Fold Histidinol dehydrogenase.
Amino acid sequence: MKVLSAEHYLQEKQNKSSQTDDSHLDESVMAIISEVRQEGDKALKRMTEKFDGVKLDRITVSEEEFLQAESAVNQAFKTALKTARENIEAFHKEQKEQSWFINQPGGITLGQKVTPIERVGVYIPGGKASYPSSVLMNVIPAQLAGVNEIAITTPPDRDGKVSPYVLAAAREAGVDTVYKAGGAQAIAALAYGTETIQNVFKIVGPGNAYVARAKKWVFGDVDIDMIAGPSEICIIADATANPRFVAADLLSQAEHDEAARPLLVTTSQQMADTVRDEITQQTEQLERQAIIQQSLKQNGRIILAETLSEAFATANAIAPEHLQLMIQEPFVNLANITNAGAIFLGDYSPEPLGDYAAGPNHTLPTSGTAVFSSPLGVYDFVKRSSVIHYPKEALNQVSEDIIRLAEAEGLTAHGQSIKIRKDDDHASSDRQSQDS
Amino acid sequence: MKVLSAEHYLQEKQNKSSQTDDSHLDESVMAIISEVRQEGDKALKRMTEKFDGVKLDRITVSEEEFLQAESAVNQAFKTALKTARENIEAFHKEQKEQSWFINQPGGITLGQKVTPIERVGVYIPGGKASYPSSVLMNVIPAQLAGVNEIAITTPPDRDGKVSPYVLAAAREAGVDTVYKAGGAQAIAALAYGTETIQNVFKIVGPGNAYVARAKKWVFGDVDIDMIAGPSEICIIADATANPRFVAADLLSQAEHDEAARPLLVTTSQQMADTVRDEITQQTEQLERQAIIQQSLKQNGRIILAETLSEAFATANAIAPEHLQLMIQEPFVNLANITNAGAIFLGDYSPEPLGDYAAGPNHTLPTSGTAVFSSPLGVYDFVKRSSVIHYPKEALNQVSEDIIRLAEAEGLTAHGQSIKIRKDDDHASSDRQSQDS
């Protein structure tokens, strides 16, 4: 694992390529999207055969398959799911937003009406691993927001089955609609609808490069959560940190995939050295060694900072998905953190705690996007409408200002809609009474 | 103006093409973006000469130009700007979000830390019209959110000048950094930076098709507000509405541009007829007749609904940018509206009131995107970070569940980072005291 100074790391970071450079993907993704838009289920099944290697008769998971899944997973797993769901609900209900209104002099009422998005689609990756935790993390905030229809889509395996863990999680979350579709074709189906798949207004959930690009393309026609990049962790450790914990947490990040970025920022040269040795030793006991070694080699960094404040500045410049403060007085130093998806405080709050059980969402801004975006939350599944009521007199009092501004913008008909209300006093008695 | 039933209108609406069909634009927009990324100011100036017809020495607006602008606009306009700013601030300060924390049994602390986005860029269109109101509507929420650096970019005219109204609005809002750059090249400069233009983390503001596509392309590297489409209004009028007001409000929408969509949904055939006549008469007195007639002909619709509840259902399916309820008891019927950017209640709350003076934002979701998005607000200029602190014992209590879920996902190193904390009790005394 490469060791370098904070200054050098930030220089190295400057040269990172941007996601818009992936444009070689776009041609194939666009082709997939337009085929699904034109041919619906037919195109979807054709691509499932092509990409997932299975010919599906039925795209929707049946009740029978749900029951098979439930018997396939053990009780301990179900208990874990239940604990996770309860904790995720407990945290996310704090995010619920209320509609509000204010009254201003002269009988003016202004407000903000909050309504849930009607239909949402959740993409859950398949392939090597399965992601029951992502089901809970994406579905529960939508439910708390009041979303009416939630559908999950996930690629089938070569036998046409989807992970029993994913189905058990869908059941635990109370979602009955699960589609066997993956990749860009699943995103297109959710965005534009097919005979089987009802179109949705927002698509959330992690996915591979094809899924990410497809989401970028349909964005605008539907909303999306974010363009997810490789997962990353940044651990700030001072001399008092436990190097075995630090190493284990960096490794838990590294096992995600080769592109994962495990970063340690430390003020202690000795910590840097000990963590390096720990990583070598602990790696030997781990299963996904090949992936881990690639991730450490390509993207793992141990960054030496002169002072803690340089360490914080470095972390803020990285804007990591996960930030662990393994230092003295982590709470006090929260004030120094401006850019991070999730912040873990102290020795016994490792990232996997947040990935699965603590309650906050594990869908977090990646690749430095924490400078502008937030964890997935209830706020992602509602929209707001402004509400404006002015009585006649109140309108008269601002009418001159409105007409001035409208004229400055060359929009005289805008001025006219105000003027006509001064000239013309007709309005039914019902509305008179209401508007004064 | 075409008259049709609600049912027929919704069928007609089905066939609307989506924004992703604009892909013929992409090649030129992508080319512009990569030139600006590679050559910075040089490319920016070259394109300003090409597209705006002026050779600029200096991209940034000078203090002298600000002063010239201030003397160029009259006092009444400045007063109008001040009224607008005060009302916009009064409404938007209600949107401010606080960080919050909760404590759970066992010494657990969870929370959500809210921080402003550090740097934001605001695009203001130039060309025929000028948009001082857009300056206030985009800048003020960012300021209330606590954004540190706000820069405005707007295309220069053939003399290399930018609108004095826009500069006066920038000054009223307290923004000193204004760049003379427009189109996709300005978006690229804000997203990736040039020698003169500091890169930002979020780009907001209206623009033409090139600007919209460029924003879509840079989205992911930076955040954007939305892909803005043509402006639209939907007026729900019952038999008691004032047809002269209804006509004037539809016309104020129609004058924006040929693509603007003025829609009337009414339960009264007589209202439909009277409004049609009114539109013909009032149009004759208006300046932008050519634009208005195109807009009415191409996109204007009078939609007949059997009942008010069909009218509400139709409006919710349209999800209009602006919705006016010119009916009896508009407040009571707010409960029936689920999809709209801004809702105007009663006879004396016409759209131009919201465009300029009432206080709620005039940057609203267009083209039906109100099904998933919201008016621009303070919430668009902050991001959230989850905060997680577990003491040792609390971690032990969920450790089994975490390990179960991690193993189900095949991520054994995740489990390891939990296990190692059970096996190993070392941690410095400072942290022991803190974590128990």
Observations:
- Confidence is low (pLDDT under 50) at residues 426-436 of chain A.
- The two ends of chain A are 72 Å apart (CA to CA).
- Chain A touches chain B through 147 residues (CB under 8 Å).
- The longest helix of chain A spans residues 75-92.
